[in-house]
Write a structure and sequence with these properties.
9 helices; 202 residues; single chain
């Protein structure tokens, strides 16, 4: 029993030693999210008229109120948020509007499609919708095998059907939630500023 306790203590000490590089966790979250929000925001900036129309149109778009305001808020949040996450500046504050943007996207765009981002025919999150998509995908593959160079077409990856469910939006929301609570880590401007100026009576 004493040997087991001793082994447990040594194992815990090894785990505790990794605290010296605990900045890697929040840094990885930030760097993962940066290109996602940057690409989403800059793509919107490239064609804001179409984005505003999509936000506002109830027939083929989202049907959101104040579409111009909502579109600009989402776009600037994504672009500005990406820059702040990269720098690790005002990270916890930036996580709030980014999180809200992801929740709005999940509810208004993705929720109706279920959980899966990519359609699957079976599994816990599969639905009639995704099973039907797989049936269509199989037919499309048969057509490509018969009339196209299927090996060349799939050389860099298999064909899939986008289901556009909430999977990615939910994942990004969880990552932002973690950053909100734990902060950006030591590899950030937030940390350097807090060490230098010790604001808020610290």
């Amino acid at each position: 029993m004493n040997k087991l306790i001793s082994f447990g203590c040594k194992a815990q000490s090894l785990l505790d030693a990794t605290r010296t590089v605990d900045f890697l966790g929040p840094l990885a979250l930030r760097l993962y999210l940066v290109p996602i929000f940057w690409m989403a925001g800059t793509k919107k900036l490239a064609d804001m008229d179409s984005i505003i129309a999509w936000f506002g149109n109830p027939d083929w778009g989202l049907g959101l109120p104040f579409p111009a305001l909502m579109a600009w808020l989402a776009t600037l949040t994504e672009v500005g948020g990406a820059i702040l996450l990269l720098l690790g500046l005002a990270t916890r504050w930036a996580s709030i509007p980014l999180f809200i943007t992801m929740v709005v996207a999940a509810v208004s765009v993705h929720l109706q499609n279920g959980w899966l981002a990519i359609a699957e025919g079976s599994g816990f999150f599969a639905s009639d919708r995704t099973a039907g998509a797989i049936e269509r995908l199989d037919i499309a593959k048969d057509i490509l095998r018969e009339h196209g160079n299927y090996d060349w077409l799939t050389e860099n990856g298999n064909f899939v059907i986008l289901n556009n469910g909430i999977e990615f939006a939910a994942t990004y929301s969880i990552m932002l939630l973690v950053l909100f609570f734990i902060g950006p880590g030591k590899a950030s401007l937030d940390y350097l500023i807090s060490k230098k100026f010790k604001p808020c009576g610290q």
